[in-house]
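ok new one. same drill as before - structure tokens go in, u give me an amino acid for every spot. 106 of them this time. try not to just spam alanines like last time pls lmao
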């Protein structure tokens, strides 16, 4: 037969301490996510157009000077750089969205 044994005082204190520590870690994580989101949001005003402009410039340089006029032998490298820049900006936006979701999680 199962006999219920109430938790001792040490077990209750340990469980309470664990909840307090996990709660403090969760609040700290949310605060860091909020600060990271704010910093990323402030930087996006400058980085967004800059990265997009560089991606478009490398794309057109690769297409016009590399493929059409055959002036640049590194045309595939330029085209790859264009794709990498656009993926970098996309990753930047994804990180911003994730930070916002962590900061708003309830």
């Amino acid at each position: 037969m199962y006999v219920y044994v109430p938790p001792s005082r040490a077990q209750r204190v340990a469980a309470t301490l664990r909840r307090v520590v996990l709660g403090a870690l969760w609040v700290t994580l949310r605060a860091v996510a909020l600060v990271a989101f704010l910093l990323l949001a402030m930087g996006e005003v400058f980085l967004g157009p800059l990265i997009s402009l560089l991606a478009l410039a490398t794309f057109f340089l690769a297409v016009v000077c590399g493929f059409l006029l055959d002036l640049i032998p590194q045309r595939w490298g330029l085209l790859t750089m264009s794709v990498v820049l656009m993926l970098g900006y996309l990753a930047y936006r994804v990180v911003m969205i994730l930070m916002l979701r962590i900061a708003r999680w309830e």
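DSSP finds two helices and no strands in the chain. and btw Residues 9-68 form the longest helix (60 residues).
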